[in-house]
Amino acid sequence: MIVTAIISGLVLGGTYALVAMGLTLQYGISRIMNLAYGETIIIAAFCAYLLVSQLGINPVLGLIIILPGAFAFGYLVYGLMMQPLVKRSAKSGTLEVDSILATFGLLFVLQGVMLVVFGSNYTSYSYLNFGVQIFGATIGANRLLAFVLAVVIGAALYLALTRTRWGTAIRAVAVAPQSAPLVGIDVNRTARFAFALGATLAASGGVMISMYQTFTASMGVIFTMKALVVVIMGGLGNLMGALVAGLLLGLVETLVATYVDPGLTLAATYAIFLAVLLWRPSGLFGKAAS
Amino acid sequence: MSALVRVEKLRKQFGGLTAVNNVDFSVAEGEIVALLGPNGSGKTTVINMISGAFAPTAGRIMFDEADISGLPPHRIAHHGVARTFQLVRVLPSLSVRQNIVAAVAFRRDAVWGEEAETEAEKLLVDVGLAGRGHEMAQDLTYIDQKRMELARALAARPRLLLLDEWLSGLNPTELRVGIDLIVSLRERGMTVLLVEHIMEAVRALCSRAVVMNVGTKIADGPTNDVLADEHVVRAYLGEGHA
Amino acid sequence: MLDIANLSLRYGRHLALDDVSVSVGDQETVVILGANGAGKSSLLKAVSGMVKTSGQTAMSLDGLSLLNMPPHKVPDAGIALVPEGRGIFGELTVDENLMLGAHPQRARGGEAARLELIFDLFPKLAERRKQMARTMSGGEQQMVAIGRALMSNPRLLMLDEPSLGLAPIVVTELFAALRRIRETGVALLLVEQNVSISLAIADRGYLMEAGRIVGENTASALMTDPAVQQAFLGGTTTDLS
Amino acid sequence: MSRTIIGFGVSLLALIGLVILPTVIDAYGVGLLLGLAGYVTLATAWALFSGPTRYVSLATVAFFGIGAYTVAVLSETLPYPLVLLVAALLGMVVAVLVGLATLRLAGVYFVIFTFGLAELIRQLVTWYEVNVTGTLGRYIFLPFSATDIYWQLLGLGAVTLLIGWWIGRSRIGLALKVIGDDEVVAAHAGIDIARIKLALFTVSATIMTLVGAIQAPRWTYVEPSIVFNPTISFLTLIMALLGGATRLWGPLLGAVPLFLMFEWLSANFPSHYSIILGCLFIVIVFVVPRGVLAFIEEHSGRFRNRKPEESAK
Amino acid sequence: EDRTSVKIGYAVSLSGANAGGAGITTVPNYKLWIHEVNEAGGLEMPDGSRLPIEVIEYDDRSASEEVVRAVERLATQDKVDFILPPWGTGFNLAVAPLFDRFGYPQLAVSAVTDKAPEFVERWDKSFWLLGGGADYTKALAEVLTKARDEGTINNKIAMISVADGFGIDLVTAARPALTEAGFELVYDTSYPPTTSDFSPMLNESAGSGADTFIAFSYPPDTFAMTAQAQVADFNPKVLYMGVGVGFPAFGAANGANAEGIMSLGGIDPNDAANADYRARHEAFIGAAPDLWGSVITYTSLQMLEEAIKRVGLDREAVSAELSNGTFETVLGETKLEDNQLRNLWWTGQWQNGMFVGIEPSDRAGASTPMLPKAPWVAAQ
Ligand SMILES: Nc1ncnc2c1ncn2[C@@H]1O[C@H](COP(=O)(O)OP(=O)(O)OP(=O)(O)O)[C@@H](O)[C@H]1O
Ligand SMILES: Nc1ncnc2c1ncn2[C@@H]1O[C@H](COP(=O)(O)OP(=O)(O)OP(=O)(O)O)[C@@H](O)[C@H]1O
Ligand SMILES: [Mg+2]
Ligand SMILES: [Mg+2]
User: Which residues contact E25 (CB under 8 A, 6 or more apart)?
Assistant: First the structure.
């Protein structure tokens, strides 16, 4: 029983982590508080659905089409919408407020387009929906795949960001954008890249989620908020933090559902989140407060 | 002379790093004392603990015979301790005058309204910023920001003033002015503990110096003696100063 | 090597630099002296592309125009800046800061040797390689900033008040280090308040006042110039000779 | 001084006009006014604390919901004024607890903490209702017309603005700005940060609680998903930011046009509402970068006194 | 009177959290009906003339305050002739006082409530068409009792419910209904909306020894649970779930695995009018209707249309006719009792690719329950 609970908790948490990692890139590095983040996830889910239902392309193959698309989308959004705001706020320091307001608008646009194109219905399809045995626990193959991908992508990103100069440069932009040019880092390009990468991660999360979950065009906000909670709990801009916090929340959810009361899963999630912040005001892996 | 501030066995630990280790010293009323030491020896940390920015890991800080260790900064400020910061901290969205009024309005015998404004203007005159009250604090030059920060500290009517490298970054002419300003403070009966790397200023101002190295005190006494001390020369001044 | 002619610069309506012409020769060390607010930092910022110039400014490094060069391209041209306030990456470790110093293309290769040199200049950094730069003392952070700039293998190193906040012994060491750096063939453009020690290592110096160049001479001449004595040395000799 | 008196006079006249208005317009008009009064009050109350301190709170709906739920639970058992009092007290107590908990948090950590808190409260209320009382929805059959509710909200809104005005010219207002700029400096200047933050947060939260309590009878039926709807927090924040959260009249000037725009769009373009709204929103961010109030001031200033800088020279 | 059209307005959740539900049950049927009426030349009046429908549509953005104001607007600004109700129990209650005050009949469909009799007393022009929790759970208890008495299932039941108005209403009615019928509730818990992982609850239920698994769930939960039950090979003899089972997408997504799954609602597969309705719905909307709420929504519109035809546009008269008249609809012959629709399909089951009504079993067109549910067919 406990093994089952732990494994399904980790698997659930894997998706949370994957989704949160994209947001932590966008917010931690590009400094864009992207309220339309969840919409990117849902768009990707719809695309996966279209590929499956219209063209019969399975979602894993679909990633090959969707991920570059998402990257381009993120790249475009940053270039068209965010860059002027970033430029403008160099003096006024209002990027946070501006990005909240602008992406709030973007959220409406994306959601509205999806409502027009796909309607407001619940959408789902079935893919790899069979059980796989791990340590005696049965897990949906689709969920397991999502988990594996989350871990692989997460680990690869983590290593890239912490072990390479390229990654360190990205983090440098996160911590001191005004100093980055001193060492030859093109802040604008890096931020744009990180934003697009964030969108790509969101899309991969969306494809994973679509394989086992029903979704609607208005559901993006739920994912945005969940991702924000994970990001903040892990420590802003910290990939490892997002990974650990995501897995932790997944575990808490299943353990509480199994051993306490399923009615308290979300309450427990938020309680843990709040407790972590009370204990460490900058998240699990955030810089310690001085 | 009774001690206005006395630190006893003061200690501060950051994780595994002991930044300040069992430091004792005192500053008498009306004295100007220098706190010296190599970079990273713990001077700012001592200032931070006296002013309440950090709580000490161990030890005591007595101010006018009251134990102020670990009190929140505003309580310590109300006891009569004011400070400047090593890296200037201005309130960027406020005007220069409001920067000063903020301190006038929240000190122990606070005043508010026109009275506070008039007092702020007076302080600005004292530090050489006469008539600059309406400018935005963040638009001032570095030296002017430093001046303003001093005015803000003075606005609290402190008995003890903690200056963390307030004179650094001034050119020799400006240094002169700065030194004179501090001298005038002493004449008004203020007690000053200053951290400084400019020996000229230390010699000109301080009757006594306390030197730290790697968190511990290595010398304490009349300035000239201390600056001639072999340990101090080796750890801090370098042979060129001997 | 570095040629600046007719540099003007405005912040809003405030004219911070007015028709400034400055040059730094190959392997030369040049110091800029001036009161607070004279525009020294602005000059360095203009060279490194961090602020936009106006008017008929001409600015080039060995003929390569620096005008409108985006700031992140400047290090690759061979100019490194240690800015006012250090500008280090506080949330990264000392090691990572130094590693980023070698981010420009021109700095790749020979990295290890330069790291060696830097640890030699600042042994403290070698002890604290894994420390978060933010938690270092003021002086230690200054060392990180200079080390990082050196890592980019610059031909011209610009330092904006490097001695600010450093213990006397470190200042002495720092200038000794600068002397050695200069001997490796790097040109230095130095802004300093510590006039005597900077003139001691400089070849030439400029005097700035309210955004204009008001004087220029060899370092030794400036050292004895009574006007300089009056304006910048407070009429006294400092504790260093 | 005289400017203050004129200001008060104009405000009072406007208030009287707003009190009389529902008697001459139809039910829909009253509904609009009611909605406006609700959001103006929420946004102004939000900005009391979050404006100067820059602690962006998403806990608005937690207090709003507490207010609404208190009315739902107690409306049958206690006289209405007492219900409001209980709601206000409850809001206050929760605000103090939340305030104490959040003292160490800053920036986006504070933002998301307050969001999490609102969700936690909603989850706990739900769980309690499901498991302890065995029902989820609650009915409110209070005999209030839309006009009654509007008048109450209007009164509360006026009081909120008055409080904001008073704070703005008291030293607490300055303290809040100092805290917003640099808490370390604030503390060393003798400001008791914790107390001031706590006090303001509590005042602001209590007002939000009352908005929820007053508005609840309008919906007959409440359940957690209705009264703890996070959209309310977001809209409040957006309105205040859009208007200019650091100024007394800013939130009002953000809330009114935004609310009317929402209304107009959802009435005229129900199926493309989202897209148009979103586009307009983005345009606004680009065109009105520093809030509606600043925008109005800049432009009216230009009318009154063309190029003031030139003439000053 | 020289009017040229009939104004009909509605405010419904086109965006926000409720858009998913409204988007399947409510909006398509409003659109379909209006389209059909206008195609036919308009609403027929008692004198045989026809007046086209002019529609006014608002989005309530899933917010109570918005739906209330939108209805005020429809009544006082747009002065529409009739207002169609919003989606959701809470929203129907929120607007009920307004419908009452402005004198509009309220044909509340997507509101499951046991309090309907009280509401009718309070607001005499309100109509409650989807029954209450007690109705559905009593019917379910009957199906289960029969199966137990035949020895098909044991008397243990595992039950979960979504912590939301709908789930709680049903589960509070289910507890007494099932225990009175002699069943033992070995697992009984609720879960918050937006839960996506049901494996802990399915595992608990599987381990509880119950032959019957009941979930009063919302569509995303229903879909997820069905998929996860297959993964976990959790195959109770009776599988009953809430909203979503009656969606055509449910049958499409689960294929053979939908067989035997039970839920609220259902249809008579042999009813020609109903089959015709489904075909028209699919043709016009592009998707088949759900087989619980959609059918009733369309029924309510047919009743309104017919009432207008009989008595004209006077709202008092239409309300009276709705209360007392008998109507021929896609649900069969329909007559309200005390302003409530009672001849509903309380329980349905997927049989041969169709979600058919099985309870009340004595109603014409009822299918026989097929229990136990067939085991899952392995995925492709
Ligand atoms: N918040 C902190 N966390 C961890 N270590 C710290 C922190 N603050 C200071 N330190 C460490 O404590 C030591 C003492 O620092 P402090 O700032 O007191 O030095 P200082 O004597 O003021 O030096 P300087 O003259 O360079 O300003 C340094 O090694 C520094 O790295
Ligand atoms: N970002 C800015 N916006 C407006 N004015 C500025 C800005 N930066 C500098 N100034 C003004 O330009 C002038 C020159 O400033 P600069 O920093 O170059 O002087 P400096 O010689 O380096 O002085 P210091 O010795 O104080 O560092 C000053 O009057 C300063 O106030
Ligand atoms: Mg220091
Ligand atoms: Mg400078």
Answer: E87, E109, E110, E290, E293, E294, E297
HEC secondary structure over A81-94? HHHHHHHHHHHHCC
Q: Is A241 helix (H, G, I), strand (E, B) or coil?
A: helix
Nearest ligand to the C-alpha atom of residue C84: 4
Distances, alpha carbon B23 to alpha carbons B49, B63, D223, in Å: 12, 16, 61
Copy the structure tokens of residue A278. 């009370």
**CA-angle at E27, arms to E23 and E30, nearest 5°:** 160
Residue (of E250, E244, E278) closest to E263 by Cα position? E244
Mean pLDDT of E133-151: 93
Burial (CB count within 10 angstroms: exposed 0-12, middle 13-18, buried 19+), residue D165: middle
Residues (pLDDT < 70) of chain C are 231-241
Mean pLDDT calculated for residue range A261-270: 87
D187 and chain A in contact, CB less than 8 A: no
Q: Is residue C83 lining ligand 2, measured as CB closer than 6 Å? A: no
Residue A3 has pLDDT above 70, yes or no: yes
CA distance D169 to B172: 43
pLDDT at D186 over 60: yes
- pLDDT band for position E238 (50/70/90)? very high
Beta strands in E85-163 (DSSP E): 106-108, 126-128, 156-162
Check whether the bond before D81 is cis (ω within 30° of 0): no
- pLDDT exceeding 90 applies to what percent of chain A? 31
pLDDT band at A157 (very low <50, low <70, confident <90, very high): confident
Q: How far apart are CA B149 and CA B83, in angstroms?
A: 9
Which are the contacts of C73, defined by CB distance < 8 A and separation ≥ 6? A184, C49
Q: D247 or C234: which carries more pLDDT confidence?
A: D247
Neighbour subunits, B (≥3 Cβ pairs < 8 A) = C, D
Q: How far is CA E254 from the centre of its chain?
A: 21
**Cβ–Cβ < 8 Å for E346, E360:** yes
Ligand whose nearest atom lies closest to the CA of B15: 1
ipTM, interface predicted TM-score of the complex: 0.85
Amino acid letter, A13: G
Nearby residues of D3 by Cβ (< 8 Å), 6 or more positions away: none
> CB of C104 within 8 Å of any CB in chain A?
yes
Mutate which of B18, B43, B51, B199 for ligand 1? The one with the most ligand atoms within 8 Å of its CB, which is B43
- Reading the block at residue E234, the tokens are 């959790």
What whole-number distance in Å separates Cα of residue E97 and Cα of residue A201? 48
- The letter for the amino acid at D242 is L
* Run of H or E including C14: strand C14-24
C154 interfacial to chain A (CB closer than 8 Å): no
**C-alpha A168 – ligand 4 centre gap (Å):** 29
Helix (H) or strand (E) segment spanning residue D57: none
| pLDDT tens column, D132-176 | 887 777 888 888 888 999 999 999 999 999 999 999 889 899 999
Give residues with Cβ within 8 angstroms of B103, minimum separation 6. B82, B152, B153, B155, B156, D189, D190
Q: At residue E313, what is the residue type?
A: L
Considering the entire predicted model, what is its pTM?
A: 0.87
Instruction: Examine the pLDDT at D309 and tell me if it is beyond 50.
Output: no
Contact C164 B240 (CB under 8 A): no
Label residue A231 exposed, middle or buried (CB < 10 Å: 0-12, 13-18, 19+). buried
- In this structure, the residue with its CA closest to atom 24 of ligand 1 is B39
Instruction: Compare E240 and D237 and report the one with higher pLDDT.
Output: E240
Residue A176: its chain C contacts at CB < 8 A? 87-91
Say if residues B83 and B39 touch (Cβ distance below 8 Å).
no
The two counts, helices (H) then strands (E), for chain E are 13, 17
